Amino acid sequence: MYLMNISNCSGDLDKFQGDWKNVEQFLKKHQLDGVELICYQDDYLDTLPRSILKGLHLKYFPTWLEFYKNDLKKTCDMFGGIEGVRQYYGGTHPDALVDAFRHEYQTALEFGVEYMVYHVSHVTTEHSFTGAFDYTDDDVLAATVDLVNKSFDTNSDIMLLFENLWWPGLTLLDKDKAKRFLDGINYENKGIMLDLSHLMITNPKLKTSGEAAEYILECIENMGDLKDWIKGIHVNLSLPGEYMIQDHSSQYEVILETTDQVEKYIKTINHIKKIDWHVPFDHPLVKNIIDAIDPHYVVFELLSKNRDQLEDYISIQNKAIGRV
Description:
alpha/beta; 8 strands; Xyl_isomerase-like_TIM-brl
């Protein structure tokens, strides 16, 4: 099944004049079977046709470990005080995270989606610039198991797919860690959503899409039978090696001097976008990657400025896969 990512915020829906019927026509034109939705508030949901809604990308808190461990002082320092914490997490107690994901799960049940996507990662704003992490993959994986088991305490037909990132957590570079993580999750209908860009980012030496494809194929080979857990793929490209090896300390100093939390957030997001590009994977070896995994879901997860650019991006990716 071939899908594309979309959200219900105006930034995405304006590309389609705020009309889901236009989205449906767009999907048909590009041989896509539906969408993987990121849900913001309740905008546009009343007219969303359930027939095209296949997956729900769950809410993502990039920074959450300190809060979940109830280190409120450190969390307040990072978010400019208790009100900043409340705005970011929806509360000031670790249970706010459990409540948030329980709500997301209920939304998935109400929508009747086939799968949910959960990011398994943690990074502070400081460490996203410095890379000087004071937490490990194991720290993040153990806390995620605890949080997920509290939040998704009943099973359903909806698959819960865990997505890899390049920060500490589920990187998929260590199959034993990944297997222990999956074994610890009580939710039975589980698997992996392999994000190709996120896997590329773990190797800053990559310079071309061909090198990236060969690297991913090598990683898949090294996964062994862990590969069987991969039920979906986010298809996109990121080659930020030159940017990643730069010294970003001056950028972080600007962040520290920024008092407005919204402005600080925007500056941080712009930094992340220089790492995680979400542009088309234009090399024909991308088909070999899909064939090697044979996933249930192939999601074109792309970021575009407007509808014309999105048209171009999807066409490029369809051509690389050999679907035109």
